[in-house]
C-alpha cells in the first residue's frame, strides 16, 4: 500500500477519480434542485394580437384608424401567464387611444391600456396608432326599395311601404356627399301574399357601389303588398227552397253587398255580378235568423274577399190574399206574328206570403203571362206563368190559357 501511495501515477489516478466523484455529486444536487426560486414564480411570456379602440367625440368627428391591431407581449410569472392563457384575464385587458383632446387632422397617438393586474410587464408593437380625424357631416335621405325577383304567376307586387321612410347618414364630408341612394333590398320571388320583413339598409354611390357611412337606423320595416288582378262586383245569392208550411220570408238583409274577385285579368273582367252561395230556408224558425255561409270560389279565380256571406233572414207566419181580374200578357212572339187570347182573358189568383208584404201588394204588382216563344201560327194551350212580389208564391199555379197565333 505504501508503495502505491508513493507511486506518482497512482496518486494522479486517485485524484482524477475523486474529482469526478465530486463533480457528479454537485451536478446531481443541481439536477434535483435546479433553482431556489419556485416554479410558479419564474418569468414567462404570452404573445397575442389585440384590437385598439379609439375614444373620441362620436357626435362631432369621424375617425379613420389606419392600423387597428397590435401585437401584445405580456410577461409575468408562470402562474399569471397560465391564467392569461386560460382566458381568465385576457378579456379584461383593453387597448385604446384617447382622442378626446384632438381636433381635425392626422396624428400618431400613443396606445394606452387598462384592465390588467399589477405585476405584468406589457409590451405593445407598434406603440403608436396612426389616426385621421375629420369633422362628421350628417344628412337625411329617403329609403328606396329594390324588389328582387318576380311574384308568383298571376300575382303582382304593389309599392313598398317603408317604416321609417327616411334615415340619417353620417360620415366625412366626402363620404356623405358621395351617397346617392339609401336602399333596402327585398326578395319577392314566387310571392303570393303580403311580405313583411326587417331589412338592412345600404348606402350606395351613383354607380351602385357601397359607401362606408353610418346609417341611423340601420334597418327598416318593409311591407310589399302582393295581389292578383281584382274587380269588385255586386254579390247575389240563391234561395233554393221554401220555409216550412204556414211560414213565409218577411225580409232578407244581406250584410255583404259586394265582393272582390282575385284572379287572372281575363277571368275577373268577365264578371258584372257574382253568384254567392245557395241559401236554404226550409228549417228556419219564426224570428230573425243570422246565417253565415262560405262564398264559393269559381273556377279560375284565386280567392274572394270577403270569403263569407252574412244574411239576416226574418221568418213569420204566412197569410193568403186573393187577387181578381189580373190581366194576361203574351210574351215571346216571333216577328210578323200576333197573339189573341181566347180564354180566359183575365184570371183570379191567391198569393201566400208575409202579412206585411201582402198588405202592400196590388194587382199592378202581379204579372201573369204566357210564353209563346217559337210557337207557329194556330191555336195553343199554354201554361200560365207569374211574376209576383218577392217572397210570395201563387197557390193555384196549374191554370192554362188558350191562345191563337196569326200572321200580321
Task: Give the count of helical stretches.
Answer: 6
Report the top-level CATH class of the largest domain: Mainly Beta
How many discrete domains? 5
The proportion of residues in beta strands is over 45%
Shape: rod-shaped
Distance between the termini: 179 Å
User: Which fold does the CATH topology of the largest domain refer to?
Assistant: RNA Polymerase Alpha Subunit, Chain A, domain 2
Main sheet makeup: 7 strands, mixed
What's the helical proportion of residues?
A: 10-25%
Radius of gyration: 51 Å
Structural class: mainly beta
Q: How is the largest sheet built, in terms of strand order?
A: 11-16-14-13-9-12-15
User: How many strands appear in the DSSP assignment?
Assistant: 32
| Known CATH architecture of the largest domain | Beta Complex
Average pLDDT, rounded to a whole number, is 86
- Spans of at least 5 consecutive residues with low confidence: 29-41
InterPro entries: c-di-AMP_regulator, YbbR
Protein name: YbbR domain-containing protein
Pfam families: YbbR (PF07949)
Organism: Tepidibacillus fermentans
Amino acid at each position: 500500500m505504501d508503495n502505491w501511495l508513493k507511486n506518482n501515477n497512482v496518486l494522479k489516478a486517485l485524484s482524477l477519480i475523486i474529482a469526478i466523484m465530486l463533480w457528479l455529486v454537485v451536478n446531481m444536487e443541481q439536477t434535483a434542485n435546479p433553482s431556489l426560486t419556485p416554479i410558479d414564480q419564474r418569468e414567462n411570456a404570452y404573445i397575442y394580437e389585440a384590437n385598439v379602440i379609439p375614444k373620441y367625440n362620436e357626435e362631432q368627428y369621424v375617425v379613420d384608424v389606419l392600423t387597428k391591431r397590435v401585437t401584445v407581449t405580456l410577461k409575468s410569472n408562470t402562474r399569471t401567464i397560465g391564467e392569461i392563457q386560460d382566458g381568465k384575464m385576457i378579456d379584461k385587458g383593453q387597448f385604446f387611444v384617447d382622442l378626446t383632446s384632438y381636433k381635425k387632422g392626422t396624428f400618431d397617438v400613443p396606445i394606452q391600456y387598462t384592465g390588467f393586474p399589477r405585476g405584468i410587464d406589457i409590451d405593445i408593437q407598434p406603440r403608436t396608432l396612426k389616426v385621421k380625424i375629420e369633422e362628421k357631416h350628417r344628412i337625411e335621405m329617403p329609403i328606396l326599395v329594390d324588389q328582387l325577383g318576380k311574384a308568383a304567376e298571376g300575382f303582382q307586387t304593389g309599392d313598398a311601404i317603408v317604416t321609417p321612410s327616411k334615415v340619417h347618414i353620417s360620415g366625412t364630408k366626402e363620404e356623405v356627399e358621395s351617397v346617392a341612394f339609401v336602399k333596402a333590398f327585398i326578395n319577392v320571388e314566387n310571392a303570393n301574399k303580403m311580405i313583411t320583413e326587417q331589412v338592412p339598409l345600404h348606402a350606395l354611390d351613383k354607380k351602385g357601389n357601397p359607401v362606408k357611412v353610418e346609417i341611423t337606423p340601420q334597418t327598416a320595416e318593409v311591407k310589399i303588398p302582393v295581389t292578383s288582378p281584382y274587380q269588385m262586383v255586386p254579390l247575389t245569392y240563391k234561395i233554393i227552397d221554401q220555409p216550412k208550411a204556414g211560414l213565409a220570408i218577411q225580409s232578407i238583409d244581406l250584410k255583404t253587398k259586394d265582393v272582390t274577385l282575385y284572379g287572372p285579368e281575363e277571368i275577373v273582367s268577365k264578371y258584372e255580378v257574382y253568384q254567392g252561395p245557395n241559401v236554404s230556408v226550409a228549417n228556419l224558425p219564426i224570428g230573425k235568423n243570422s246565417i253565415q255561409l262560405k262564398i264559393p270560389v269559381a273556377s279560375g279565380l284565386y280567392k274572394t274577399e270577403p270569403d263569407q256571406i252574412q244574411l239576416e233572414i226574418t221568418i213569420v207566419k204566412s197569410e193568403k190574399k186573393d187577387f181578381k181580374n189580373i190581366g194576361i200578357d203574351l210574351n215571346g212572339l216571333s216577328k210578323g206574328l200576333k197573339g189573341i187570347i181566347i180564354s180566359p182573358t183575365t184570371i183570379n189568383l191567391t198569393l201566400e206570403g208575409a202579412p206585411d208584404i201582402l198588405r202592400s201588394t196590388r194587382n199592378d204588382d202581379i204579372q201573369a203571362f204566357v210564353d209563346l216563344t217559337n210557337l207557329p201560327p194556330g191555336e195553343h194551350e199554354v201554361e200560365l206563368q207569374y211574376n209576383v212580389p218577392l217572397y210570395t208564391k201563387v197557390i193555384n199555379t196549374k191554370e192554362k190559357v188558350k191562345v191563337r197565333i196569326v200572321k200580321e
